[in-house]
Design a protein that fits this description.
single chain; 286 residues; alpha/beta; Protein-Tyrosine Phosphatase, Chain A; 8-stranded mixed beta sheet; Starch-Glucan_Phosphatase; TYR_PHOSPHATASE_DUAL_dom; carbohydrate metabolism; protein phosphatase
Length: 286
């Protein structure tokens, strides 16, 4: 598929689904890439997955493995409950991601400095946008400071725009600043942008879709479908519509967003898009 514009994605993909989108995406099959025993990425499709160097035990016996499995189970139960989707996060398989366009990658959290090395060497990543809260990082036992240090050593710009996991209101409030960071990095053009949350199935794809909606001339459904066709997932459309409403409407007498129909702000007029773009760009550096 041809690029929409010089600064926009040529193809895209997404995270967990909701309502009718869930039924459509459930029929699609995803393929994954895993790291083999020689510690190389093996490509089996669009999604790349980096397995820990120690490999994966089929029957974990250690207390550490049991604790990790419990965390994954708790996280996936919460994901299914809040996002109404069948997708799961498997932390033990390592970092996984999908190349959306020539300058945008959406994926899960880097787990160690070597993951940053891979993103730099294999994908030419120059920017990382982390949407996790501190408690997300602590929950999975990630040494974030070691990852940030490695980014500095490799001249990768590491940025954080925390949003609460499984919380559409927090996502809605954080989208303008997150998209501002994403838009700035893409406009710089020094390398690819890696956007991640924890699993890469909710917050990160939502930011990518919103950027496509606001800056690439697409309506919300087109942007959503383009991303989810590559990375099956289901971020909240309501959060994206709400953030669009917040930026496009500043009249003191405007109707409350919650009273609008479900299709409201799935598309916007040119003057509204220009207004949103100016407001998002004004957030750079905040």
């Amino acid at each position: 598929m041809g690029a929409v514009s010089n600064s926009c994605f040529s193809s895209v993909f997404i995270a967990p689904l909701e309502n009718d989108d869930f039924l459509k995406q459930r029929k699609k099959k995803s393929t994954y890439n895993f790291m083999d025993s020689n510690k190389k990425f093996v490509s089996f499709g669009k999604i790349y997955c980096k397995q820990p160097e120690s490999g994966i035990e089929e029957k974990p016996t250690s207390q550490r493995a049991s604790s990790s499995n419990n965390r994954m189970e708790e996280y996936n139960i919460a994901m299914k409950k809040m996002m109404r989707n069948p997708y799961e996060y498997h932390h033990d398989l390592g970092m996984n991601y999908t190349v959306i366009t020539e300058n945008l990658i959406v994926g899960s959290q880097p787990q160690k400095p070597e993951d940053v090395d891979h993103l730099k060497q294999e994908e030419d990543v120059a920017y990382i946008l982390n949407l996790q809260q501190d408690k997300d990082v602590e929950y999975w036992g990630i040494d974030l400071q070691s990852i940030i240090r490695r980014c500095q050593e490799l001249d990768i710009r590491h940025m954080r725009r925390p949003a609460k996991d499984f919380d559409p209101d927090s996502l809605r409030n954080g989208l303008p600043k997150s998209v501002s960071s994403l838009e700035w990095a893409i406009s710089e053009g020094k390398g690819k942008m890696y956007v991640h949350c924890t699993a890469g199935l909710g917050r990160a794809p939502a930011v990518a879709i919103t950027y496509m909606f606001w800056f690439c001339g697409m309506n919300l459904n087109t942007a959503y479908d383009k991303l989810t066709s590559k990375r099956p997932c289901g971020p909240s459309k309501t959060a994206i519509r709400g953030a669009t409403y917040d930026l496009a409407k500043n009249d003191p007498w405007k109707e409350p967003f919650e009273s609008l129909p479900e299709y409201a702000f799935e598309d916007i007029a040119d003057w509204e898009r220009n207004l949103i773009q100016n407001r998002v760009r004004s957030l750079r550096g905040t």
